[in-house]
Predict the 3D structure of the following.
Amino acid sequence: MIRLITVATNQQGLYDITSRVNELVSTSGLQSGLCTLFIQHTSASLIIQESYDPSAKADLESWLNRLVPELDPLYSHTLEGDDDMPAHIKSTLTATSLAVPFMDQRLALGTWQGVYLWEHRHAGGRRNLVVHLGA
Amino acid sequence: MIRLITVATNQQGLYDITSRVNELVSTSGLQSGLCTLFIQHTSASLIIQESYDPSAKADLESWLNRLVPELDPLYSHTLEGDDDMPAHIKSTLTATSLAVPFMDQRLALGTWQGVYLWEHRHAGGRRNLVVHLGA
Amino acid sequence: MIRLITVATNQQGLYDITSRVNELVSTSGLQSGLCTLFIQHTSASLIIQESYDPSAKADLESWLNRLVPELDPLYSHTLEGDDDMPAHIKSTLTATSLAVPFMDQRLALGTWQGVYLWEHRHAGGRRNLVVHLGA
C-alpha cells in the first residue's frame, strides 16, 4: 500500500513528521509490518534523531552546515543558488529512504526517536514523500 | 514478521551481528525475501562493512572519530556527556535502518560483507534492534 | 521476488542505473510496491541524486574526494591500494541499501532524481546488486 505526504517547509531545518507517519500506519489496517519513507527530492532528506532535547537538533544542523558550507570554491554547480550544491551533498550524507518497522499499529521507534524531514534549502518548499506500508 | 535483537555493548566500536541476523533469517520459515534492521537508538547505528581485515574497521572508527571529535566548541548539547553529541552526528552519517535481501535462508551479503552495530558511546549499553522479515 | 543486476565500472564515479532498475520493476508483474536495492560491496555504494545537471554530480564527487583523501596518514589498511580505505569510508557515508517505492510499474522518483551506483575504486570492476521487489 502506498500513501503520499506533502510537507511544507519555509526554511532550513528539521521538521518532525513522526505523528503524520504514525497516522498513516494506524489507519492502514495493518497490525504490524514495515513502513518505508522515500523523499522525492535531492535537496531535502530524512533522518531519525533524538526528539527530546532541541539542542541536539540545533547542534546537528550547525555541524552539518560547517562541514558543507556555502560558497565553497570547489562548487561549479552554482546556478541554482548558493545553498543548492550544499543541499545535494547534505542529502547524500543523510538518507533519501528510511525503513521503520511498526507493531500494534505504531512505528517501533525508540523512546527518544523521532522521524524528521531535513530541509536543506533556505526557502524550503513543498516536499513530497512516498510512503510504502507492507505487512 | 517482526523479531527483536538486543546487543550488549561495553565500549565504542563495531559489533558483528551477521550471525545473529542470519539465525533469524534461517528460522523464519521464509526461503527468500527482505530483512530490514532498525536500531531504536540515536547514539548507535548500523553499517555493512568489510568483515575480513580488522584494520579496515579500525581505520573507519579512527576516521569518523577525527571527523566528529568530542569537545567541539560548536556543541551546546553537552549535558549527557562529551561523547553524546558526537554519537548523534555519527549516527546520522551512518544508518538507522538497513535492508538486506535474503536467498536460500541466508542474507545475500557479498563475500567480504558483514553486518555491524556501531556503538558510538564510550560506556555502551543494551542496544535494541527491531528486525522485519518479509517475503 | 529477487533479481540480480551486474554493473561493469571502469573508473571512479556515478553510474546511472535508473533505467535498468525500472526495467526490473516493469517486468516484475507487480503494479505497485517497494523496490529495494542492495550492493554486495564495501568499496562501491548507492545514492539517489539529481540527474539533470552533470555539474552537481561532478561537485559531489570532488567534495567527497576532498573529505576522504587518499594517502591519509591515519590509514593502516593500505595493502589493497591507496584508494581502498577511502572507498570503504565513502561507502559508509553513502548507502549500501536503498528502498524506492514504485507505482504504475515505475519507480516513484522525483522529477530530477536518478538512481546511481557510486564506484569508489579507480579500476572499478564487476559490481553485483541484489534487488528485492515486493508488493
Observations:
- Strands of chain B lie at 2-9, 13-16, 33-39, 44-50, 97-103, 106-107, 113-119, 125-134.
- The domain at 2-134 of chain B is CATH 2.60.120.460 (Jelly Rolls).
